[in-house]
Amino acid sequence: MSEPHAAAGLRLVLVEDEPAIALALTDRLEREGFRVTHCADGESGLRAAQDGSVALVILDLMLPKMNGTDVLQAIRAGGSPVAVICLTAKASERDRVSHLAGGADDYLTKPFSTDELVARVRAVLRRTSAPSRVEAAGIVIDFDGHTVTHAATQNVAGELRIEKLSALEAGILRCLVTRRGKATSRAQILDAVWGRYAAVTDRTIDFNVKNLRRKIEIDPESPRLLVTDHGVGYRFTG
Ligand code: CA
Prior knowledge:
The protein has 238 residues and is an alpha/beta fold. It has eight helices and twelve strands.
């Protein structure tokens, strides 16, 4: 079940005041290869989260000293791009949306299984820690700048062909490139790009893939980089 993952060895901060939950999560995450710093209140959690070496923060919302919402606001106000997954007992849609809008990368409602948390941690890290620049079969993808440069295609003026990607197209491409050579289902793309709760249809994914092909393929009608894996989904072959 546990796939080896490049994120193993990364440092996580777990901010959780319930000792039994903190112990169970720390134990499981360490067995998955992560290094875990546990903090039992919001103030110490914020201090730990502001350390630049932290890849991801798992943040309970009901905390002593400083609540999780304020911790999240302080993290983002300081300009930190660290990934944050919020934990809460409140399941209402309004809370979920407001916390995602407030800068959380994902959201988990108690009670949840440790398997579920590990899957979410991996999905968020895949989104946030992939390389910013990837070269593949004649194209250079810049995930920060959202561009694809065709290294061998020039116009009459001798300028390279450069295509601008939308944020969604860049997200889908990042998901497929991270799994380079492997078939990726639409459900995996949805989970990686929009998050599990999103109401996104397969048609939306297919529409964005079609646009992506127009930008990265020499001949979008006969794709060679972003191929369809019939019955599974899509595969990046570059
Ligand atoms: Ca709590």
